[in-house]
Each structure stands twice: as C-alpha cells, then as structure tokens.
Amino acid sequence: MLIVMRHGATDAEVRRVVAVIEEMGYKAQPMPGVQRTAVGLVGNDGRVDASRLEGLPGVQEVIHVSKPYKQVSREWKAENTVVRLGGGGAVQVGGADVVAIAGPCSVESERQIIDAARLVKDAGAVILRGGAWKPRTSPYSFQGLGRPGLRLLGKARDETGLLICTEAMDPEGVGYVAEVADIVQIGARNMQNFSLLKAAGRAKKPVLLKRGMSATIEELLLSAEYLLAEGNHDVILCERGIRGFDTATRNVFDLTAIPVVHKLSHLPIIADPSHGTGLRDKVIPMARAAVAAGADGIMIEVHPDPERALSDGAQTLFPEQFAQLMREVRVIADVIGRRVAEPALIDG
Ligand code: PEP
Ligand code: MN
Fold first, then answer.
1. CATH code: domain of residue 227
2. Given Cys at both, which of 8, 39, 252, 265 links 3, Cβ 3.0 to 4.6 Å?
3. pLDDT, tens digit, for every residue of 312-332?
C-alpha cells in the first residue's frame, strides 16, 4: 500500500503518517519524490484499514498496490530508478545513458583479463565483466579461478579504471564479490536461490539480477523484490534469454521483456544477447535491437582470442566485432534520444 502525500505536505505530516503506520504494526518507508512524498506501507497482509490513513492531514490518496511484487512496481515508485556506480557515481544505469558491460565469460589468467579490459575500454565499455566463479552445467567444465580470479579483476580495474561486474554463486561468495566488484551479479541459474538473494539484498553493492532460463517476468520481479525487501534498492535486471523448443539458438532472446519490465517496474533492465542467442553472429543484431527496444545497457562477451576461451567461446565476440558493435550502438542510442556512456566518465 502506498500513501501519497499532497504537494507541499509538511515534514510533520509525513512523520505522522509514518507513526500511524508503525502503530498499526507495519513498516513505513518514506520516499521523497521530485513532486511529492509518498510513504510505502510494507508487511501488508491485505487486511490494512486504509481509512485510518486516508483521513490524516496532508494525505492525498492511498493506493493499493495490486501486483504480487510491491517495491519493484511502478505503482510503488513512478520515477525510474537510476543506479549510480563506482565511488563518484559517474556511471549511471537507468538514466539517459546506455551502458556497455563487456569482457570474457570467465577470468582465465592475468594476461587474458588485462588484455580484455583494455580492448573493451578502447571500444567504449565502462564496465568489465568476467566470472571468477562459473555456474557450469557440467561439473567437468572449467569452474572458474575463484578468489584468485577476483584479485585479477581488481588488477584489471587498477590498470584501466573500468568498473567490475562479476557473479556470486552462494551467500558466502557475496561477501568476497562485494569487496571487489562494483556490481554483484546473480546468474540465471540462481535467480530463485532465495538465500543468495537475501545475502545480496544485505550487501552494500548494486546487484545485477539475471532472468532465470525458465522464469516468467513476474517471477523475475518477485526475485528482485527479495533484494529490495532486504534494503538493497540498487538493482539492475537482465534479460538473457529463456528456454524454448527451437534448437536453432541456445535460448530464445526475449526482447519484449525490455518494454514489459519498463512498464511494470521502475528498475533498469539491460540485455545480454551473448547468453540470449549463444551464437556469435546473432549477438550483434540482437544487441542493436535491444538498444533500439530501450535497454538501459548491454552485456556482451568479448575475449582477446575467443577461439581459445575456456567457456562460451562460440558466443564470444572478437575484439574488432565488439568495436564495430559499439560504433553502431552509439548511432542507435542517438536516434532514440539516449547516448552511450563513454569511458571518459571513469577516467580521473
Ligand atoms: C554469465 O553472465 O556469466 C552467465 C553465466 O550468464 P547466465 O547466468 O545468464 O547464464
Ligand atoms: Mn558465459
């Protein structure tokens, strides 16, 4: 339930609403807005007596949030959430900028990740990706370097200034990842790992939540609700393809998820056409399409030598392909009144 205050409502009136909500046994969450303040009522079991709140001074209206998710919904918060990254918050996801996150599937060696960082930055990425822990379908596939991989990501950041996005696979890993990374990634296979979501919700770092391969958009939003419910509001969603019956591509890249999520939620959503399609030559057109569809960013797998990649080589772009994609994406962003966040933002 959302209590919308009148334009010009006083602080004392807002405090009174908060006090009454707490008296009723619920949690109050004031949300100052540009136009007016709203107060969210959390812990609502559907039996709240709205009339008590409607009559309070300064209250304009009480809105019943009808979706199963609350804090992630547009009803709860009309303005877009802008996630500010890094110390200075120069890189923002969810505002006018379109942000490129790029790098290899896995961190493999110091040489590989530093080379990858340099080349993705030269092409225009502001965030470096690379898994230190890899959720692999087969236990015999490369599982990632673990903590040494995280240290290498830290080195790549020191060398290039790029921000870091990397995956945490379990609640213990969230602590390690949050120490080094600017964004803690939760992978598709873990979208409904609720203890992991709770741990990430308590982390003091932004979270990138990837859509599960069999998850509906509503389930994605409910998983994001776990993060907000734990107090972490810096959440970025990611469409990365869902399971279909057609084996022509690795997954069915659901482009419509982008405008659907933007309508239902204030959270930013980015697109990962690398995992979405699984095929290098399909990544480029789908990345272009995602930006045209309004994605707040793209996540692209790029490797200095994709043919030797230890994971996901077939969907990984060659450096020159990524540079070309970035040139194209700048033009597409411009057409829809956006611009691509440039590495100059993270320099100095
Ligand atoms: C990844 O981005 O490294 C990854 C494993 O992707 P997903 O969780 O979408 O499969
Ligand atoms: Mn991968």
1. 3.20.20.70
2. 39
3. 999 999 999 999 999 999 999
